[in-house]
TrEMBL record:
GO terms for molecular function: transmembrane transporter activity. One of its GO terms (cellular component) is membrane. Gene3D superfamilies: MFS general substrate transporter like domains (1.20.1250.20). InterPro entries: MFS_dom, MFS_sugar_transport-like, MFS_trans_sf. Residues 20-431 form the Major facilitator superfamily (MFS) profile domain. It is found in: Membrane. The gene is yaaU3. It is a multi-pass membrane protein. This is Putative metabolite transport protein YaaU. It comes from Pseudomonas reidholzensis. Belongs to the major facilitator superfamily. Sugar transporter (TC 2.A.1.1) family.
């Protein structure tokens, strides 16, 4: 990397990029862990705190409610005070709220602590992804952001493994250790993030050119300077509150709708897989095998999408993902009384094909908005999608009990096809564009 003419978006990946991927991806790993660990502890926790069904539901939903507020807050903080400072807010909140759960004695306090953890998760999405995307080379931007989705599932799987080990060997009060266990991961993440520089793009947006140039030289070498950083599109200064009145309102609508439509069925299916499979007449070993296989195929689908994101392109991948996963859900509705093999095949197809939409949740919002409002846009997408996830998760048991499995699967298919319609109408192609071109309205 010695050419004074090469753009920083065309350089090869270096050690800094690798480390920043770990630093940013650690937030997604913790996110998957902290959101899943409460389910591991639920039975023993409910007995220990004498929780009724109302409080069990509220505690399970508390983190999703926190994410709604955290997404808005994190986006505003990141755009206002910079990526570097806010990068440490999530790990600190993870540690404080997690360790406090060890001494919890009431449902209300546990709800508030889980709510605080949700706020931390909501903050993580805009700060970690915006910082990462603003340093990554163009050709690595999509795959690296998509990898964060895989890390979420890895964190969720790790939670089930660690939580089960603690419950097996920790005694009657081991649920407290289970809930407190994220403090270790939060501490590791905090240490890993020490020494992370500020985004030069954000520094430039605040008129701090000398500091931006110093970061560029630190990351890319002394032969690089501000001349190697592609210039931001010329436009009036943007604030996030004016976003919907600017040309970026259509992009925000697209991000909010496709993100929401892609997570509603996934969260509902993932949270209630055993109940849904039982409604599809899969019981015993078939149900156990099905739950594991579906989780595995969610991960495989995300991995395949990550590998194809540059060759296939963003727009085509999103449209194909919604179309084929929606067809799989229609199949589950139409053939809900079919054989075990057919049901698992259709369920597996849904898990596999939805991977494209899943990985693009963090790619599109980071590419479609300029530096000044990038984190805010990711925060809004995070918040609105979690509203959909919470509503969908809340409705699934009632829909199954009141209307049956066929209706529930048809409803999930309709939501998926709504996402498809918005994608066909609004999804742009950003694969070959640098970050400035992708964020430009011209």
């Amino acid at each position: 990397m010695t050419s004074p003419n090469i753009s920083v978006e065309d350089v090869p990946l270096n050690r800094f990029h690798q480390l920043l991927t770990v630093r940013s991806g650690g937030g997604s790993f913790v996110d998957g862990y902290v959101l899943s660990i409460v389910g591991v502890a639920l039975v023993q926790m409910a007995a220990g705190l004498s929780l009724n069904s109302f409080w069990q539901g509220m505690i399970a939903a508390s983190a999703l409610i926190g994410i709604f507020f955290g997404g808005f807050l994190g986006g505003w903080l990141t755009d206002r005070f910079g990526r570097k400072r806010v990068f440490f807010v999530g790990p600190i909140l993870f540690m404080l709220a997690s360790i406090s759960q060890f001494w919890v004695e009431s449902a209300l306090v546990l709800f508030l602590l889980r709510f605080a953890i949700g706020i931390a998760v909501g903050i993580e999405y805009p700060v970690a992804t915006s910082l990462l995307v603003e340093f990554l080379p163009k050709k690595n931007r999509g795959p690296r952001l998509a990898t964060l989705t895989i890390l979420w599932f890895a964190g969720a799987a790790f939670a089930y493994v660690i939580g089960d080990l603690i419950l097996r060997h920790g005694g009657d009060e081991s649920w407290r250790l289970v809930l407190a266990s994220p403090v270790v991961i939060g501490a590791v993440l905090f240490v890993l993030r020490m020494g992370t520089p500020e985004s030069p793009r954000w520094l430039l947006s605040k008129g701090r050119a000398a500091e931006a140039e110093a970061v560029i030289k630190q990351v890319y070498g002394n032969d690089f300077s501000l001349r190697n950083l592609p210039e931001e599109p010329k436009q009036k200064k943007l604030s996030f509150t004016s976003l919907l009145h600017s040309g970026y309102g259509k992009r925000m609508l697209f991000v909010a709708m496709f993100w929401t439509c892609s997570v509603i069925p996934v969260f509902a299916v993932y949270a209630f897989a055993p109940k849904v499979l039982a409604a599809l007449n899969l019981k015993g070993d078939w149900a156990s095998f099905g739950s594991v296989a579906i989780t595995f195929l969610f991960v495989i689908g995300c991995i395949i999408a990550t590998r194809l994101i540059n060759s296939m392109g963003r727009r085509r991948m999103l449209i194909q993902s919604f179309a084929w996963s929606g067809m799989a859900l229609l199949g589950l509705a139409a053939f809900h009384a079919g054989s075990e093999v057919l049901i698992l095949t259709l369920f597996g197809a849904y898990a596999l094909f939805i991977g494209g939409a899943q990985v693009l949740q963090l790619v599109y919002p980071n590419e479609l908005f300029p530096t000044e409002i990038r984190a805010g846009a990711v925060g809004v997408g995070t918040s609105l999608s979690r509203v959909g996830a919470a509503v969908g998760t809340w409705l699934v048991p009632m829909a199954l009990d009141s209307y049956g499995i066929a209706f529930t699967m048809y409803a999930a298919a309709i939501v998926t096809f709504i996402g498809l319609a918005f994608s066909i109408a609004l999804a742009p192609e950003t694969r070959s564009l640098n970050l400035q071109q992708a964020a430009s309205l011209s």
